[in-house]
Amino acid sequence: MAKQRPFSDAGTLHTAADCVFDRMPKEAWLEAFASHPRIGDLDSLKMRLAGNRQWSSAEQAGVAKADEQLLERLQQRNNDYHQKFGYTFIVCATGKSAAEMLANLKQRLEHNANTELDVAAEQQRRITHLRIDKLFASKPPDA
User: Fold this and answer.
1) Is the pTM of this model over 0.90?
2) Would you name the residues annotated as active-site residues?
3) Fewer CB atoms < 10 Å away: N or C end of the chain?
């Protein structure tokens, strides 16, 4: 994708991202997943890149309203997920409450490894497309 820059509009960038996503091997997806904080783990939201921290925090805003008991259940299920699949639970959290994310997490724990990798990759794709839209929305027209 870097060789295709600059992108003139969000649509062109979305298309380029999808082309790359469609060819990504498992190892590349796992690398992408590793950059995400765990849902509900406020300590892991302290990521190295300020922009990523800002976006992750906003995307996980539904967790901020959760009570301690719900956060503990999220953390436990996140641990179960990581133990089963070996990577961070990836969900497009924008607009979802902590209870919705927990329900989604419980349901996805029932998947086999291949099915879950496909589901997690689709969630990563959604997150990326939301961030592309945010990037272009915050960019001045002449930039």
Assistant:
1) no
2) 36
3) C
